[in-house]
Design a protein that fits this description.
Largest sheet: 2 strands, antiparallel
CATH class of the largest domain: Mainly Alpha
CATH superfamily of the largest domain: Tetracycline Repressor, domain 2
Distance between the termini: 67 Å
Order of helices and strands: EEHHHHHHHHHHHH
Number of strands: 2
Structural class: mainly alpha
CATH architecture of the largest domain: Orthogonal Bundle
Number of domains: 2
Number of helices: 12
Strand order of the largest sheet: 1-2
Strand content: under 5%
Helix content: 55-70%
Shape: elongated
């Protein structure tokens, strides 16, 4: 039993009850924000959904913005916990890394409203803060970074920069989450998981082709693509702006620039 703690004049605070009430508010608010949108969500409606007065909401959150951001933060904590739980169903580090993908897919399949919250956060608070999703990613990436270092040392994962592996996998999953939500795909989680792991972990190149695709080959193709699309780091984005200035001809297209 959780002890009650005095907080000055008035009734003592039951911390367990307070935490439970906060969770109830976040659950109702998250559903309403996702359903009706940030602007249209009324705190009176949130309070009625929880079964409390509006004043109770303000005892936990400063204003509507504070409540909204707390719902996103709570959802990200839930995602982190769920992915970790699924990953730890195996003791093998490579299987843990792979199982984390499955946990990620399941979480967003079960909680599509969280995708709506992330979309709204970007739309409403884009000028005020880094996305809560990426804040959580930065705070929780440490153990995964160490796990991949172990796999590289053991020769089970290619000896490429660990940060590159993390960035590619996180971007792949982030894009997958939105693509699955917007496309309303009927593919099961198991099918989706199989496709991602098969392509991302095992690759698409045959053994005979793999040897041809070294770093120089990839850089050479990127250089050719830049020239073909009139794109450079500072210039055109290909969406109607002025094309990048013409580059000097390269003597041998087969050679990659330094």
């Amino acid at each position: 039993m959780v002890a009650k703690r005095a907080s000055g004049p008035g009734r003592p605070v039951d911390e367990e009850l307070r935490q439970r009430r906060r969770e109830e508010i976040l659950a109702v608010a998250g559903r309403l924000f996702a359903q009706d949108g940030y602007a249209a969500t009324d705190l009176d409606v949130v309070a009625r959904g929880v079964g409390v007065g509006k004043g109770t909401i303000y005892r936990y959150f400063q204003n509507k913005a504070d409540l909204f951001l707390a719902t996103v933060d709570d959802a990200m904590h839930a995602m982190d916990d769920f992915v970790q739980k699924v990953a730890l169903s195996s003791m093998d580090p490579l299987e843990q890394m792979t199982l984390a993908v499955y946990g990620y897919l399941v979480f967003f399949r079960r909680n599509p409203h969280v995708v709506e919250l992330l979309i709204q956060e970007r739309a409403v608070f884009r000028d005020h803060r880094k996305s809560m999703y990426f804040q959580h990613l930065e705070r929780n990436v440490g153990p995964w970074r160490e796990l991949i270092h172990v796999l590289v040392r053991e020769g089970r994962v290619r000896d490429v920069p660990v940060e590159r592996i993390i960035k590619v996998f996180s971007d792949m999953l982030y894009g997958t989450m939105f693509a699955s939500y917007f496309a309303r795909r009927e593919k099961s989680v198991d099918e989706h998981f199989h496709d991602l792991v098969d392509v991302a972990m095992r690759g698409v190149l045959s053994p005979s082709e793999e040897s041809r695709w070294d770093e120089n080959a990839i850089r050479r193709l990127a250089h050719l693509a830049k020239r073909a699309s009139d794109w450079n780091e500072q210039g055109s984005d290909g969406l109607g702006s002025e094309p990048a200035s013409e580059e000097k001809p390269v003597a041998d297209e087969r050679q990659c620039p330094e």
